[in-house]
Amino acid sequence: MQQLDIPTRMMKMKGFIYRYFLEMVEERFGLTLVDTLVGKADLPSDGVYTHLGNYPYEEMLQLLDALSAETELPKESLLHAFGTYLFGRLNATHPEVIGLYESPVDLLKGLNDHIHFHVQNLYPEAALPKMEVREMGPGHLQVLYESSRGLYRLAHGLMEGVFSHFNIFVGIQFRLLEADGTIVQFELEYEPE
Length: 193
Description:
The chain is of the alpha+beta class. It folds into two domains: about 10-75, no CATH class; about 80-190, Alpha-Beta Complex (H-NOX domain), CATH 3.90.1520. Helices cover about 50% and strands about 20% of the residues. The strands form two sheets. The protein has a four-stranded antiparallel β-sheet with strand order 3-4-6-5, with helices on one face. A two-stranded antiparallel ribbon has the order 1-2. The longest helix is centred in the middle third of the chain and has 19 residues, at about 75-95. The radius of gyration is 17 Å and the shape is globular.
C-alpha cells in the first residue's frame, strides 16, 4: 500500500466536523471551555465554521491539543469520545441514510460502498478515510482503516457508535500497521444476531 505524504497544512476538513466537535465540547465541558479553546488555539477561522466550508486540518489538531491541555485527558480518549458523539450526530441529521442499513455490519460495509461514494461525489475535494470490512466468522469482523490524517481513535469511537445504535455490545481491539496511525487493523467481536 502506498502511503500518502500530505503535509497537514494542505489537508482540509469539512466545517460540520469542527462544529460537531465544538458542540461535543460544549455539551460535555461547557461553553466557557469552548471559548477558552478557540482563544488559546489561535485559529485562522477564529473558531467560526460553516457546515460545508473547508478548513485546515491543523485547526482540528490545535483544538484537540488545547482540549487535552485544559481537561488533562489524553488526545486519544478525546478523539474516541468524539467518534462516538459524531455517529450520534450523523444519525440525528441523516436518519434516512442510517435507516437503510439493517445491521451494524451492513452499515460499516456501506461506508465505503455507499456513504463515502456519495460524499465524494458531492465534495470531490474531500479526503475521506477508507474502511475495508471483512467478516472473519460469526461475531468477528476485521476492519482495515486507512486515512492520511491518522484519526483511528475517532474511527474506533464511530464503530462503537454504530454497534450501540443497533443495541449490540462490541469489543474492539486495534493494531497500528503504520506507526502514525494512518493504517490500522481493527478486530471487532460481538454477539451475532
